[in-house]
Amino acid sequence: MADAVERPKASFRPSMLIYDTRYRSLTIQIVVFALFLAGAAWLVDNTVRNLAVLGKTFDFGFLGQRAGYDIAQRLIPYSQNSTHARALLVGLLNTLLIAVLGCLAATIIGVIVGVLRLSSNWIVARLMAVYVEIFRNVPLLLWILLIYTVFTEASPAPNAFRPDPTTGEADRSMLLGLFAVTNRYTAIPGMSVEHGLGALDLGLFTLNLTFAAIVGVLILSFVARALVLRHAAAVQEATGRRPRTWWKSALILILPVAIVLFALGFHLNVPELRGFNFVEGVNVSNSFMALWLALSLYTGAFIAEIVRAGILAVSRGQSEAAFALGLRPRRTMSLVILPQALRVIIPPLISQFLNLTKNSSLAIAVGYLDLRGTLGGITLNQTGRELECVLLMMLIYLMISLIISGGMNVYNSRVKLKER
Amino acid sequence: MSDTHAQTTPFVRETMVPQAPPPAGQTGAVRWLRQNLFSTWLNTILTIAGLVAIFFLLRGLVPWLAHSVWNANSLSECRQIIADRWGPDATGACWAVVRDRWTQWLFGFYPRELYWRPVLALALMFVAAAPVLFPALPRRLLVLSLLYPFVGFWLLWGGSIWTPVGGLVGFVIWYGVWTALASRAPFIGVVLGFLLAVFWWLFLGHDVMRLISDTVPYGIQSVRSDRFGGFVLSLTIGVAAIAMSLPMGIALALGRQSDMFLIKTLCVGFIEFIRGVPLITLLFTASLLLNYFLPPGTSFDIILRVIIMVTLFAAAYIAEVIRGGLAALPRGQYEAGDALGLNYFQAQRLIILPQALKISIPGIVSTFIGLFKDTTLVIFVGLLDPLKGITDAVRASFDWKGIYWEPYIFVGSIFFLFCFGMSRYSMYLERRLKRDHR
Which residue of A has its CA nearest to B285? Predict the structure, then answer.
């Protein structure tokens, strides 16, 4: 059968590239791509010419040179004679350390404050609202500087913890007998083992076998616990009764680690004032404490709002239905409210974690040597390689961000509502 | 027998029981306390903990504020006054530093006799923003908003009036070409107008304007960028970046939602890159690297560079916020646009964007608040922000050496007022624009 409508003749006019919707998108894309390439070429060409004028080259050879500066806080061995690459690594680890600890503390603060802000207690709800509003509406830099000032100005010198020889009383006493906040550092208990397992040299860094053993045992415990929980779920599905698991979980989580720690001769080193300084424990620099507290409190305020919004987003009918079914409040929370609230909470929470990680670059304000302080600060100034340093720094931050958001997105897709 | 009695004689009440007040435990303050503070034992513990926290906060704060000193010439004088009045151990706030140096916190090192110019620029900004913020005003006033960037630039930096006029002429050319061709070929009109405007800005405008300014020289005292500081700097960067990042963010969001693969890829790449790096690295790029990327010998103003980078930064975040708004719109809205026979731009302008932007208002405003707070980071590229830059400058003077809390509290409260005000305005806007009756 012939077509009822005669097809228009396929004739192509150049104007159709713009006015025919079939071709227009192609035209636009080609033009935009050409413009993009031209722009990129222009930038690269400019850079090449500028580098030639300055007599500089574009290479990362400087990373292998001797750094020649000190880094106070380091998680891996480092000295002045180490290379810039190693300084970079130290800085990166410092960034990651503050990011991980900050995210942990911020989440804890945020969840507590977010729940308390919804509390029926008038005073507590108002107090939390004041905290959230004050921290959210003032620049983070101010909190970092302010807390740094509190530590350096308002806290006593280590000397104040020395008991007076005549009376036996010290001006200040240590918090719980374990922590001492001074104007130079915060002394916290250190951890050490008597029978260490030694270290394994892996070239770039050395692996502390003692630490690795503890972490390995912990991981194994968690796997075992997961198996126990899975078994409990299977029993519940088959018989309708869930066996009690809490004591098994507790045992599995605590006992193996305790045994390993005992076998290794683990003990806490309580800081002790000897001479002019605290020894034995770990002395955490004030810049780290200020940065960590400020980041956690600031981000915690944002997370509190996210948690509050997430809980409010679960409609009232859900908890009423759960109560009607006879669920107790705690189970209602864990089985009905939280799973639904988490779907709302997780995505913005990810971006808060990212923000915290990126904001840790404000370490510059208190002189904490993180990635920005080592690679983007001293290394950059010493070698004069602005282009390489800043590009590398951006790339590393980008990688961290993408890894965090990737990991959290996997988690998000696991907790989100399964729907078609 | 009692049964029959109950059925034969109905009980009818003949007198009303007089209204009685509720029991004393169920009224007024007592009831409120019971309900809100002591309903359960957990609640009681929380109340007591809250009261203890408030007590400790106030115990330090109240005497310190009560012992405030407003008139003094140096910190030591302040301390002397406090010691004289409230005893040697008393501590107190020394607000005299704010009274002495507040102009620096507001204006940085802007010439003292020219303070009226940033103030006027700020006042005019509200005039220019009014037609945008309040739709009740006549639409013609939008011309003021469009002219404001040039006026504001001229007032802040000064110099020859022909510099901003030259910039303005480029836009006039663009608009003129567009309207001239609007009826026949709108798309070509926009592109051609843009090309002509760029040609004017790059090649022609500079010489023509120099010629004019030689014959009719008119200008006001120019102020170099390194004299800027304090809240004038923060507001300049913040307002400029806010104004420019919104349209750019909308364009990026639309690009990200686009069906065209290349456009989408470019937008996603840009957004993810900018959102993945800290603002500080972008500011470093502005101060250290921009000279590498531009033709040799080019150098332009550091404030301008920072504004560009902050704009790019904010635009990426706004794009994501608006993408959320676009995604939240029901599919039917897009289909309705198609069904009405609207083209892409008409559908976006008339149906999609008004709704999507309305949904995104809270996110957009919180991005703006974040941006305004982030203007304090310009200290790290050597500009005098109010928080660290000016405060350090003040503390460096011999008179005020050793002062800590007062400057931070002062600057922090101003930031708080701005940001809190913005967030309240966004709530007002949200309520006003609310169309669904839920």
Answer: A390
Which A residues, 148 through 207, put their C-beta within 8 Å of a C-beta on chain B? 149, 153
Interface of B with A in 38-77 (CB under 8 A): 39, 43, 46-47, 49-51, 53-54
Residue B1 has pLDDT above 60, yes or no: no
Percent of chain A with pLDDT over 90: 23
Residues 6+ positions from A135 with CB-CB distance below 8 Å: A143, A297, A298, A300, A301
Confidence of residue A1 (pLDDT cuts 50, 70, 90): very low
Q: Which of residues 134-193 of B touch A (CB under 8 A)?
A: 187-188
For residue A82, what are its two tokens?
Answer: 């180490």
- Give the containing element (helix H, strand E) for A238: helix A209-239
Closest CA to A19 of B184, B230, B423: B184
Nearest CA in chain B to A362: B280
Helix (H) or strand (E) holding B160: strand B159-160
| Rounded Cα gap, residues A349 and A404, in angstroms | 11
pLDDT greater than 60 at residue A144: yes
User: In chain B, what residues touch A129 (CB-CB under 8 Å)?
Assistant: none
Out of B50, B387, B404, whose CB is closest to A149?
B404
The Cα B394–Cα A137 span in angstroms is 24
Least-confidence region, from A53-67, A93-107, A126-140, A344-358: A53-67
In chain B, % helix, strand, coil (3-state, to 5) comes to: 75, 0, 20
Chain A, 228 to 247: residues with Cβ < 8 Å from chain B are none
In chain A, whose CA is at the least distance from the CA of B422? A137
What's the token pair of residue B398? 């011999």
Cβ <8 Å between A138 and B288: no
- What is residue A102's predicted lDDT score, i.e. its pLDDT? 95
Question: Under an 8 A CB cutoff, do A120 and B36 touch?
Answer: yes
Give me the mean pLDDT over the A172-192 stretch: 75
Q: Do A376 and B187 touch (CB under 8 A)?
A: no
Provide the residue type at B229 as one letter: G
Q: What does the pLDDT read at residue A200? A: 67
Q: How far is A390 from chain B (nearest CA, A)?
A: 7
User: Rounded distance, CA A403 to CA A401, Å?
Assistant: 5
H helices of B1-40, in order, are 2-8, 28-36
Please indicate whether, in this complex, the C-beta atoms of A386 and B288 are within 8 angstroms of each other: yes
Tell me if chain B has a CB within 8 Å of the CB of A358.
yes
Distance from the Cα of A50 to chain B's closest Cα (Å) equals 6
Are β-strands A185-188 and A180-181 bridged in parallel, bridged antiparallel, or unpaired? antiparallel
The 10s digit of each residue's pLDDT in B303-357 is 888 999 999 999 999 999 999 888 888 888 888 888 998 888 888 888 888 888 8
Could you tell me what percent of chain A has a pLDDT over 70?
91
Q: Which of A47-56, A164-173, B77-86 has the lowest mean pLDDT?
A: A164-173
Give the integer Cα–Cα distance in Å for B217 and B215.
6
What's the whole-model pTM score?
0.86
Report the range out of A336-340, A392-396, B155-159, B178-182 with the highest average pLDDT. A392-396
Residue type, position A104, single letter: L
Contacts of B210 (CB under 8 A, 6+ apart): B162
Residue type for A325, please? L
Residue whose C-alpha is closest to residue A284's, from A373, A366, A364: A366
Q: What is the mean pLDDT of residues A307-324?
A: 90
Determine the distance in angstroms separating the CA of B263 from the nearest CA of chain A, rounded to an integer. 6
A114's CB contacts (< 8 A; 6+ apart) are A303, A304, A305, A306, A307, A308, A310, A311
Q: Please give the pLDDT value at position A7.
A: 63
CB–CB of B205/B171 below 8 Å? no
